């Protein structure tokens, strides 16, 4: 499990790993311009892009990619750009959403028919794609900046997290798409729904906590989230990455990882089998989602807080971007088959324990 650190040559704001490579968004040399670049991290160098395009976007904050479209959230709104994975090219601007203010969270649905945006003002918007028809609009979804947003696998639920204190406002919400059986928040003229579950979070579980959520990943029916707790006496922050069932009433779930610092990034692999998280000290952890068995735990992978974290489509490589430098750290993960011996040992132990208890009876 080796690690290498490379520099792209200019400040990288965010990146997204795709089948064709890693799409990087960086601030440009000229005012109100940014750069989208495609690099083959697994076979080549980060600083040697195979696709490169300048876009008229100021200060990109987040990007997401679905098939042939790159969405770029920025301080002004969101723009959409064509992406040819086969030819490794990024073309000019195709669509734009302006006048939305600073957008801090962005996600395509897995089906690609929707795109969700979360703002610094706590405003949640969901659009159909590619029409960009607004059908979900919740101005007061959160009272603080929305820091992360994601869809579940079948695109029927959206989870948003913000920096609201868990003891006051939950800081996390699960929203139901297309389901009129939930509490209605918005109905568009077309009859589409974006609704918030009633009693999504068990508030009693958070009444004595002084903390906030950061980072979220969604599989079919399970959420993986980072919770940062601030000690009232020392002011120091410790964090848990937890696994919770996404039912109508959610309380504490299973602990996945623990940090002695703030969780600042979290991601789930495309196949939903691995969850990776990172801290404000540059520490990184990767675990299996189902068994919660650890795969990797490494300290000081990057210098300072991790701004962005990504797993390759085959989940054999991890890329981390530091908030304090231009460097990107590339970490190799064990192949899926490499964990087979350990799993086999657990199975053998379980069988032996069963036989032992049977004989004792």
- Termini Cα gap: 45 Å
Write the CATH homologous superfamily: YVTN repeat-like/Quinoprotein amine dehydrogenase
Strand content: over 45%
Model regions low in confidence, pLDDT < 50 over at least 5 residues: 180-192, 197-208, 248-252
Membrane topology: Single-pass membrane protein
InterPro entries: Sec12-like (IPR045260), WD40/YVTN_repeat-like_dom_sf (IPR015943), WD40_repeat_dom_sf (IPR036322), WD40_rpt (IPR001680)
GO cellular component, one term: endoplasmic reticulum membrane
Organism: Cymbomonas tetramitiformis
Tell me what you see in this structure:
It comes from Cymbomonas tetramitiformis. This is Prolactin regulatory element-binding protein. GO terms for molecular function: guanyl-nucleotide exchange factor activity. Keywords: Endoplasmic reticulum, ER-Golgi transport, Membrane, Protein transport, Repeat, Transmembrane, Transmembrane helix, Transport, WD repeat. There is one protein chain. The chain has 361 residues and is mainly β. The protein has a single domain (3-360), classed as Methylamine Dehydrogenase, Chain H. It has 1 helix and 29 strands. Strands 14-15-16-18-17 form a 5-stranded antiparallel beta sheet, with no helix packed on it. Strands 1-29-28-27 form a 4-stranded antiparallel beta sheet, with no helix packed on it. The chain has a 4-stranded antiparallel beta sheet with strand order 2-3-4-5, with no helix packed on it. Strand 17 and strand 18 (193-196) form a beta hairpin. The termini are far apart.
